[in-house]
Design a protein that fits this description.
4 copies of one chain form a homotetramer. The first copy, chain A, has 338 residues and is an alpha/beta fold. The first copy, chain A, has helices at 12-21, 42-45, 79-88, 105-112, 119-124, 130-138, 148-163, 191-194, 209-220, 253-264, 278-281, 308-322, and strands at residues 2-7, 27-33, 69-72, 92-95, 126-127, 142-144, 166-176, 199-200, 225-232, 239-247, 270-272, 287-294, 297-304. Chain A is 33% helix and 22% strand.
Chain lengths: 338, 338, 338, 338
């Protein structure tokens, strides 16, 4: 059995990793760390894992020997302190925070407001979106797992960007369920505030902005202007990103459909559909993408479960590639549907 | 007391009109019609009106004498059969359906799929958005009350359109609570379908599209391209419309703020705010508008309670103008806030 | 104009008091205190009150002169420090916390875990449920406003208790929206925790238990065993309490209906209905009560908006009585219905 | 591979069966019937099953040969017409409707309002609750799968009933998510009606009442009075049943805990916990049970995902037993947790 560690096992991403990995046929969770819960049984903190994860939280990942791969599921700014030592010991790493997503240190430091202390590994990190960077991930020691917003946006936009049919700007109106904000209570995620509302937030200042910009540029092959407006909606799991493009030339719906089908026809987890549905993907690593011609514009929709394809599921998909396991292992279940 | 009639008292718009009018100091509800509930007490169908509306539903509005003004709160295609007779009797009319919103018969017939049988009055109908057409409403006999989406969009966009600062297209990503879909159960508004989701619908085909286009053109003074994508969100009351513009020239946030403050500074019901909130307007005729510079674009947000400022409340505001009552009478209450 | 003060204007109860009082024809809000927001405009903290409350928060209520009545809307343990001075100045007081609800100091100290420092006034406080204690409230200087759970439970149970038809125990299975928990974020009211769940909490330890017990005993005229289980449901406003009794003798549904109709037939705000509905009362001071025979048991349902009839609205109803105003002044609006 | 058929594949229970069975290692779905969708691909009706179920709906189950076991997931009154022929062909059957749950024909006909046409097999049907009737299910040809409410209630109550510690009556205050009402839109499950409410319904008339009574009597070994009040809550999946008992004698919490631990200590899917959580079981076949002493009463809570342990998951658990497969096959995944 391949031995896996999780740094940051208290939060939603950490427990979601455990939920997925405990169903995985080829790996075992050997360690989960938690500063606040060190010494406590994982199943006491996360009762839904009772019978599936028989471990105590440890203080440090170095307390556990012979790990093959470690997931880092901590707030930004923490992973960069953990990653160098892990890589030096020959342990592969998947970071689910924002620490290794942007190769440009200056951009990182501007948006996150602190110094990056591991610029060396930053250059080596592979962006963990398997549908587009499968080959790089296969050989990677360090993967930066995409953010939930970025995943939904890139899946929706990349085929159009690569097609060369669209102009150099995109408007992204994104809507996220509250679990995307993590487990720490706040005024915005207080039920009485958000439970019967939809709340635009961090307009122009959201930290996923540079990640989206970087990815979008990469697919377009040139600089794109990105306008990103995130909004909180009163659901627990799920993201819908609505992405608006101007077409450079006249195309019809069939042309658009073909571009997406060519891109995703062979993918297990990304589905090009007519009407995207959050319930169809909730609880699973599946994503749905739709794209609709509207005059001289196209609106592309991307839908994921923010905790699975938008975080832990995608990370496990990357893990499978890095460890030469079947890419879908532990992940091949449908969404809840209802 | 001014005597008011409501045609179509069973649905959400009809009962919301009754809820507002029963608090109005200067008018009395003299008649409410309902085909399916004729002969039944209004408070038996709408128990929340018990103690406030002491009437039975009647079959036809003509069963009631001496009405001064009638609201028509029926599905589209019905009002046009009722309005001519009412106007002929000297009764003022406010139609809350789509029947009299577009002066161009061809556009109506294309989007609604049936012939318009009252083209004469169609030309005379005044668009009932008091903040922009107050003078026309004052003297009108027939007012076409704006749709809920259109109200939220126009309030957000009109100041920018009038300013001449924006290019000739707007992308409107709109999100509505389920009460906007009316009281008839459907697959989309079934709780298990929509209760934990956000659902784009009628993309490119929604019937509020031509209304928005007509209004937007009017404020811009030239033809605007409108891209309108409505989405259903799991709240009961409330709309948030996010509207994206390209700027023609460089401006700063202060310039934008001033444009909006000049427009709405004297309005009782429209508030230019930093962070729009649905809960702040729910249950009230208030609207919130915000507008944020994002590089060479602006995103303008419009928030209303779809049943009040987006329907019945705005209709009562128009009624007050048409009857020379205080414009805020019966409406001057804050939103629920929480 | 009668001059009103509110101690504790930041929280949900304080802002709800302001929302109601600003629609009141006979009083003016002369002061609102807030420790954390002293010096800030009320409408900046509560934007939905913009245009309705033109005040700054003050630090202490004693900063304002010539108050006629003060509402205390603070957490328990605070009111007892404020009330003596207010009463000494001849200012009437309505306390919305738990400090003055129980005449038995020992019971208070056991459940709240601290000493009661104003036992003198505790004995004089009148329990502010107008439908049952109208006469006492009329002459009161100090009113202890009932809790939201207690209001819903007493309205449902009192007629049966008074009838002598039921045995000496009641099971109360109560469900509350999240605004009942106040504005301070917590793990339980975090949307991702409670937004798609129903959560029993404080089973056997909830602080409203002794208040319910006291009230129930009073109506029964003897000691009742109360089993109270509160549960959090994912709505913002509203409580449904389901109360189960054993009948002492055989009765039929008509007998039960008559008991309730006799009790509430003349009340403006309490409605005996067949099928209780939270939406029918939301946003209003109305309550709905239903009572159904089930074999040798009766289930009685009580429904209120926890912030209105369950808190601020009921307090204003008491204020009207204490100040010899019309009991319904400022409160006579229907619920939202939809 | 064992070949499985599903009669009634359009509804929520049918699609949930397919969702679970497509993850099952030992069986294949050979047929799904649907009257309204015959000839249509299953994945076109249920897009979340795309890539997992590669079948067309057929009109009749007899169109498919060599089935080993058939699930009947139709409204009540339909199964009794299908079951005799299936059993005659040697096909095992699990009925998820109410048709075979009650052995007393008179009780069935009273509550369901029509004649039972297969009274012979009715007597042979085994009640499919594995935690209590495992041995009978092992040898059964026909299993009546418990209802969702009944499952949550029995799991909570049976240990107490069997203990002999409780008196002969139980009050069940049950709360269900909307998916329990099925996929057909209705006024009650319309989002604007139920989305911000909790709605008691079918008080005293719900068809699960006799099923609960029958089961409760069986465990008690004598006649119990059951008071059952179902309530609709605004979540999609999940049931919480709160069950109140009088104790015959004085016990302490430890005694109660021991009773439950003895009952469920060896069960994979039923967990005795301190604080039950719907999110902990959603999407899974797990149930949580809690039981709390409150004076001379006990409140027992039962929590399930109504579509899994309350329907399709439990049916698959029975199937595993009937086919001599591992009882947990296809089902051994944790709940979503968040």
């Amino acid at each position: 059995m391949t031995r896996i560690g999780i740094i940051g096992g208290t939060g939603y991403t950490g427990s979601e990793l455990a939920r997925i990995l405990c169903m995985h046929p080829d790996v075992e969770i050997a360690a989960m760390t938690s500063r606040q819960n060190a010494g406590v049984r994982v199943a006491d903190v996360h009762p839904f894992l009772s019978g599936y994860v028989d471990l105590q939280f440890t203080e440090r990942i170095s307390d556990t020997k012979d790990l093959d791969l470690v997931f880092v599921a901590t707030p930004h700014g923490v992973a960069m302190n953990e990653v160098p030592a892990l890589l030096n010991q020959g342990i592969k790493v998947i970071d689910l925070s924002g620490d290794y997503r942007m190769h440009d240190v200056g951009v990182y430091e501007k948006w996150y407001g602190h110094t990056h202390t591991d610029t060396e590994n930053l250059q080596k990190a592979v962006y963990g979106l398997p549908e587009f960077f499968r080959d790089e991930i296969l050989g990677a020691d360090l993967v930066a797992n995409p953010g939930c917003y970025a995943t939904s946006i890139i899946l929706a936009c990349a085929p159009l960007l690569k097609s060369g049919l669209v102009e150099d700007e995109v408007i992204v109106d994104a809507k996220s369920g509250t679990s995307g904000a993590g487990m720490v209570p706040s005024a915005r995620t207080h039920h009485s505030t958000c439970g019967e509302s939809i709340i635009p937030y961090s307009v122009g200042t959201h930290r996923h902005t540079p990640e989206v910009e970087m990815a979008v540029d990469r697919f377009a092959g040139s600089h794109m202007k990105v306008t990103f407006v995130p909004q909180l909606i009163p659901i627990v799991r799920g993201i819908l990103s609505s992405c608006y493009f101007n077409l450079k030339e006249e195309v019809n719906q069939e042309d658009i459909d073909e571009i997406y089908r060519n891109q995703y026809g062979g993918e297990r987890f990304v589905h090009y559909v007519k009407e995207p549905s959050i319930r169809a993907v909730v609880g699973s690593n599946h994503a749905q993408v739709a794209s609709r011609l509207m005059g001289d514009k196209v609106v592309a929709f991307g839908v994921v479960d923010n905790l699975v394809k938008g975080a832990a599921g995608q990370a496990v998909q990357c893990m499978n590639l890095m460890l030469n396991l079947k890419e879908t292992a532990g992940l091949d279940v449908p969404g809840l549907g209802v």
